[in-house]
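Reply to dn_fold:

You asked what the input looked like. This is it:
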Amino acid sequence: MKIHGLQKMTLLDFPGRVACTVFLGGCDFRCPFCHNFELVDGTARPIMDEEELLAFLRKRQGLLDGVAFTGGEPCLHKDLPELMKKIRELGFAVKLDTNGYHPDLLRSILTEGLIDYAAMDIKNTPEKYALTCGLSEMDLTPVKESIRLLMDSGIDYEFRTTVVQEFHQAEDFHGIGELIKGAKHYYLQCFTDRDSVPFGNLHAPSAEALKEYAGIMKQYVNDTNIRGVD
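and this is what came back:
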């Protein structure tokens, strides 16, 4: 497996862990507000292979205690479970970031006990999901299946939505709430513009709007919080 990026240490990406973040290329979505679009469209070249990553981790035993996989969409890589096994054998906890569109691989990962934490993006209310993913249409069945898998898994997990002024209004969060009602944790993440974002003229919601949306979501997920706002 090719590795497209590596953040050698983070205290933010894996709750409760001192971790590194591994970036994998490719994604089946084309979200206009994506921060890592160079991983999505293939312009980012690999920086190392799997064996080089494992060599790096062997040198970090005792310094790091977790490895977070993100992308792109990690679950596009069918050999991901095998790499996770090797990483766990080195003594590291594993976290997965996913868009939830590959429930079969997610089920395999969960069944084999290969992750300690999962973070799944919930893009929007069902009626606006495809639009928010940059697609003309999509079947939400895989997303709903992944939601249920995580909620029934017994591991720690979170759902999260990157909130963009042009894509999200208050009523949308009732639809999101119905999708994940009763979940453990939910985070609203404030969009921030970067040079790597593929579509211009997108804006962050106001702090007041985020608070309003969080209030709506607390009706569905008690542990609802806002990220990315001081």
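The beta strands are 2-3, 5-10, 19-23, 48-49, 66-70, 93-98, 117-121, 156-163, 186-190, 224-227.
Hope that clears it up.
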